[in-house]
Amino acid sequence: MVPFGGWDMPLHYGSQIQEHHAVRRDAGLFDVSHMAVLDILGRDAQAYLRHLLANDVARLRQPGKALYSCMLTAHGGVIDDLILYYFAPHRYRLVVNAATAEKDLAWMRARLQGLEVEILRRSDLAMIAVQGPNARGKCLPILPPAMQAALCGLLARAAGAAGMAGGQAIDLASVGRVLTEAELRAMHRLKTGALLQAAVRMGAACAAPALPVATRAALEDYGAAVGLAFQVVDDILDVTADSVQLGKTAGKDAAADKPTYVSLLGLAEAQALAARLHAQAHHALDASGLTTAALLRSLADRVVMREN
Does 173 share its domain with 272? Predict the structure, then answer.
């Protein structure tokens, strides 16, 4: 054990070659709580980070995704290497090295002039890294067997006839038909909407102790709003984005004569509906009583504000 950044750091647990092979062939668990976690918040967060780092943070568009980069001096020298996580256009998280954390913070704070950016050090968080080809399998037994079965059941129902598969079947059978808004909403609450709803339910099911009834009900409302918003925005993007931006053929729903929110309500009203669902999702989180819902808020933002 050696002192490192105010922490007691184990250098190795015996043979370093054996440790290397254990991680590369199986899995290893590392307590990396000594590293400093910095939340970068505010309207100018992306512009600030693009100025600060060597890698282009604009590449990050999906909440939870991360990139490795270096923080540079004005002359291109390396101050520190780090990991940057994306939550939303106004919310990022940096993980920097413990030994250089104070120097990093000083450099970063000196470059905030004129920008709407806040740097929040998250000393309340701990970090455990599980790495290796069997990392996921090693983590799964942490969940009790009954919870594993419950999660599988939630996902299976969301993917099957009462969810995604059923919604897709209705979608295919509705080509060339004019659906009512109620019929369209019922179809869209299935499809991808059912999977997003299931993801929220599965997260709630993992809570220990169990969440209060009111919190679960609020999360149900949140999942329903986000799930339907995803499909509404899909319909909107089909007519407002090009194929390069979408990563798929634009306008194919109209060409196939499929019922969509745009064909039923018009573009402006479909966009207004997406905005209402966005507000409903945030309102549900406000009513949930959860003290840490930042990622769920970022997910709702991403679903509605995405460009592809």
Answer: yes
